[in-house]
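User: My collaborator and I are trying to settle a disagreement about how two of our proteins should look. Neither of us wants to argue from intuition anymore, so we agreed to look at predicted structures for both before our next call. Could you fold the first one, then the second, and keep them clearly separated?

Assistant: That sounds like a sensible way to settle it. I'll keep them separate. The first protein:
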Amino acid sequence: MKRLLLSFILLTFLLSEHPEHPSEHPTTKNEPTLTMADLALSIENYIQHDINLKGGFFVYDKNNKAILDLTLLKIHKERLSNIGGDTYFACADFQASNGNIYDLDVFMMGKTQANLEVTAINVHKENGKARYLWENQKGIWVKVKK
């Protein structure tokens, strides 16, 4: 299922540029079925729900083999994107209890705000240093190591 979802996501990516994140996140020109405000609120609600359940927002960092205790700093609302098939992409900055700043890529699926679910969270950057980039390979967006 994860491979199918990842394949679908990668097949639907297009890229746009933003001064803060030039050419590094997938986007599309599809019209969203949810507003970007709905998506931002859903991400904030997901984080708050996780905090309520666990006493904090935690993400496993595969690179450093550590659990990150994170505090949300900013959701990049200008980067929220509908990438097709009721799948949405967002980028958000967090500060960890160790003082590092992490940029996370968040993927959600759902037809309405009420049924949006987080399907993947990836550590994209640590203290501004990208761990991977998005690259268009013959019309298919793939995540490549930096």
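The second protein, kept apart from the first:
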Amino acid sequence: MFWRIDMWRNLKRINQESGVTVLVTTHLMEEAERCTRLAIMRRGQLVACDSPANLKDRIGGDVVTVRTDRPAEVRAILRDRFGIEPQQVDQELRIERSRGHEFVPQLIEAAPKLIDAISVGKPTLEDVFIDLTGSRLAEELQPV
């Protein structure tokens, strides 16, 4: 672990002192956060390239994640009652919505006993990756 800290410290120093562009490839989002520009690829195709902050700003609000054992039912409620088409990843439904915290009580009332957990947060690079590719990074690393 400490070698990673030293490596990043040295890469930053080399970049700042010498003006050298450093190209890094990683599947660790915490490392990707350190980059000035980030290219996201899916199966050899470039899907986005920008700063981590700009990529997260593309989400345009909060990310509401709903964990449920019955995603099809909750998905139908979201579609019928709110006109929302959530993105499904495993047993979770993802909704991108401004002021997501205000939506949570409405969602709980609309789908009583169907929701196991809800989280609301600002977009992460993992959220950006899911938004752009439709899957988690770990799924993309699986052999085709």
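Some points you might bring to the call about the second protein. The helical segments are 2-18, 29-32, 52-57, 71-82, 100-110, 125-133, 137-140. The chain is about 45% helix and 20% strand.
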